[in-house]
Amino acid sequence: MSSLIVSRLGGDAAASSDEIKKTADIIRSNPSRRYVIVSAPSATRQNVGITDLLYLCHSSFSNRENYLPILEKIYDRYDEIVSGLGISMSAGEEISALKKSLELGMNLDYIGSRGEYITARIFAEYLGWDFIDASELIFFREDGTPDKEKTFRIAGEKLQNIERAVIPSFYGTLPDGKIKTFQRGDCDTAGALIACSVNADLFEKWSENAKIYSADPAVVPDPEVIRNVTYSEALELNYMGIKIANDNLMLMLNEAQIPMKISSINSPEDKGMLITPKLKEYSRLDVTSCIAGRQNFSVIHIMKYGMNKNYGFSEKLFGVFAKHHIACQHYLSGIHQISVILKTPIFDIRRNEIIREIQEAVQPDSITLEKGLALIAVIGEGMGTVKGIFSRVFAALVHAGIKVRMTEQGADRLNIIIGVSDDDYVNAVKTLYRALVLDEEGE
């Protein structure tokens, strides 16, 4: 039985008729690609993105300003695409329908979704596939969150008897029947919902640049490209600032045991990066997949003798941070002291107020504040099964003359978090990369 692939295309894949032709060739090259989820044409050097124009058009119409020039730009973009593809679809008819929707007072979400709607119809006609409106497949709850259960049930049933289809991303339907859009930049979720609905064997995400590096190229020259990680590793990379995909999207795919492949639309022959629920085997080089880090953290050290016997101490302390909507990035605790790590820019806004409230809430013996902390994560599924990782980390840093200000390892043994001075950040990342990714001895 052949595999089933759901392919998610970004706005760059629809930027022009030439881009659509190139993308269509990629889709056709593998008959297992059966459902394609598309976005509206993205911005180019010459053009504003279609979704931005749609929002601007709605704003101008609502404010009784002249919106027709904006509508004309949308028409020009789609007319070039339709003409370049040589399909019978009329860009003029689509823009007339859009104009009528504005005049009927359709809401912002509906107008903003028309870019994906029109683009999906264009792709479907060019490929010779079925077009299915996302409003018939993807559903939201009243609070605006995706209704996964309803989507899985209805989309799964509807697509069961449809061999190939193009589906718009970016929107779905609320319980009252109105159109609801995802947040900007979250269109991949629509693709993942469809992948789970049809129990796909693979979810593909196509973008302009699919390379994820084992260290920040701005810090480490020419770092190795990551080819295979688990969803757990990918979530860690997200947290450390190496954005791979939306957390909820990856959790959903991981739960459904569906791998995700990130590929480049400009280099389809490249292997890309595969994200899987689990890695089957680890070679020696698989132990550490990435060195990632972020700077500009603060640490609050709270000392109170007998803290470990004080019921409700932690609840009161973290209640102060929760009150101010400040997430605690990490915390380290002992018998008499707890150290809480926070993002400096967010914490500094209410620093004095927070410290005062901590003093009132837990009555500590002392509070001290450190700034200028950088956090570096050594990430890899294999670290929990290989001996000597800790010793290699600290030996490398000591050899480089870098002082470690804190360290932590998660219960899943997926990563080691090391705290160093902001001033030592670049040197520490380079040192750890050489020692753990390249497996080089210190000089």
Q: Termini distance? A: 54 Å
Largest sheet: 8 strands, mixed
Supply the helix-strand structural class: alpha/beta
What top-tier CATH class of the largest domain fits best? Alpha Beta
Model regions low in confidence, pLDDT < 50 over at least 5 residues: none
Helicity range: 25-40%
What is the structure about, briefly put?
With 443 residues, this protein is of the alpha/beta class. The chain is 38% helix and 21% strand. Helix 3 runs antiparallel to helix 4 (91-103) and helix 10 runs antiparallel to helix 12 (351-362).
Structure description:
The chain has helices spanning about 15-30, 50-60, 70-85, 90-105, 110-125, 150-160, 190-195, 230-240, 245-255, 315-325, 345-350, 350-360, 390-400, 425-435, and strands at about 5-10, 35-40, 130, 165-170, 170-175, 180, 200-205, 230, 260-265, 275, 290-305, 330-335, 335-345, 365-380, 405-410, 415-420. The N and C termini lie far apart (about 55 Å). Helices cover about 40% and strands about 20% of the residues. The chain is of the alpha/beta class and about 450 residues long. The strands form three sheets. Strands 3-4-2-1-7-9-10-8 form an eight-stranded mixed β-sheet, with helices on both faces. The protein contains 14 helices and 16 strands. The protein has two domains: about 5-205, Acetylglutamate kinase-like (Carbamate kinase, 3-Layer(aba) Sandwich), CATH 3.40.1160.10; about 290-435, VC0802-like.
